[in-house]
Design goal:
single chain; 217 residues; alpha+beta; Pnp Oxidase, Chain A; nine-stranded antiparallel sheet; 9 strands; 24% helix; globular; FMN binding; Pyridoxine/pyridoxamine 5'-phosphate oxidase; oxidoreductase; Split_barrel_FMN-bd
Length: 217
């Protein structure tokens, strides 16, 4: 059996030097600190600062992760949109527990939310759908998300067909397209620290208020 050189990922490491996170830096509500960090990620011109990794679990307990874009947030929830026939949507229909993770690596920061997802109302979905670029609206019709396809050409052909069909008219909302609102009860903030002494604070909902603990790195 021939030998091959292996890429030794164990040797990849660096120091985290951008600064710490102290209790005095925290806000009363976790969404206030999240908004501050998100604005700083935008100001730093990070690619896709609203990209979040969401984790769901299937009927066998197998977790799945994928990246989606945050489209709205308020004091109690975060919102994203998707094909309702997608794997993630099917998972959430049977188990609405979800984890959302924002990996802002260049700022040496992470934010994780734990909560439960619920379907958005038709009125909320229609309003957002028609705010999207027309090509994005058409693309929602083209893809049966997570289904198996033989070639990319199938998608491209269908897209061109529908683009011509809706050339001079409004694109209707597909019945299989919608969104979810995630109501969260736990938020963790992570800031990289030197010598691997990272700063971690977790907010956990207690009634109408939030309890905050520092976690060991």
């Amino acid at each position: 059996m021939s030998e091959r050189n292996e890429f030794d990922v164990a040797e990849l490491r660096r120091e985290y030097v951008r600064g710490g996170l102290r209790r005095k830096d925290l806000t009363k509500e976790p969404i206030e600190l999240f908004e501050r960090w998100l604005k700083q990620a935008c100001e730093a011109k990070l690619y896709d600062p609203t990209a979040m990794c969401i984790a769901t679990v299937d009927e066998h307990g197998q977790p799945y992760q994928r990246i989606v874009l945050l489209k709205h947030f308020d004091a109690n929830s975060l919102v994203f949109y998707t094909n309702l026939g997608s794997r993630k949507a099917k998972h959430l229909m049977q188990n609405n527990k979800i984890s959302l993770h924002f990996p802002w690596h260049p700022l040496e920061r992470q934010v994780s939310f734990l909560g439960k997802a619920e379907r958005l109302s038709p009125a909320e979905v229609v309003k957002y759908f028609h705010s999207r670029p027309k090509d994005s609206q058409i693309a929602a019709w083209v893809s049966q998300q997570s289904s198996r396809i033989s070639t990319r050409g199938i998608l491209e052909g269908k897209f061109l067909e529908l683009k011509q069909k809706f050339l001079n008219g409004e694109v209707p909302l597909p019945s299989f397209w919608g969104g979810f609102r995630v109501t969260f009860d736990s938020v963790e903030f992570w800031q990289g620290g030197s010598s691997r002494l990272h700063d971690r604070f977790i907010y956990q909902r207690e009634g109408d208020s939030w309890h905050v603990d520092r976690l060991a790195p």
